[in-house]
Fold:
Amino acid sequence: MKREFTCIVCPNSCELVAEIEGKEIKSIEGALCKRGDEYVVQEIKDPKRTIATSVKVIDGEIPLASVRTTKPIPKDKIFEVMEEIKKVKVQAPVQINQVIIENVLNLGSDIIITKSVGIQKCIERVNKEVVAS
Structure:
C-alpha cells in the first residue's frame, strides 16, 4: 500500500510517498533531507505532536497566557492532555518557562508558559494601598 505524507519538520515541506506493508516500511521516496524519512517512520510507527494552547490567568493584565508541551506527546493522547490543561487557572504574574503541569499524564512532557503575564494594574495598586495602610 502506498501512503502520501507532507513533511512538517523543515521548510521544504517535502511530498513523500511511502510503500507500506502492515507496519513494515518498504520504501520512502521524495525526501530532500534525511529528516523527511525520519518523519515518515515516526508517523507510521509512533506519531507524536506538540501542543500549543492557552490557560486562564487570574488577575492578569491579559486574560490568557499561551502554553505548550516541552516535548512531543503521542498523537492519541492529545485530547486527554487538553482536558488536563483546561483544568488549570494560574494566578498572575506568570513568567515564560514557568511549569504549570509537570510530567502531564506521565508522558514525560511538562506544560510551560510561553508568554509572561503581569498583574492587572488596579489589583497591584489596591495591594500597595493595603500594604501602606
Summary: The CA atoms of residues 126 and 132 lie 10 Å apart. The mean pLDDT is 93.
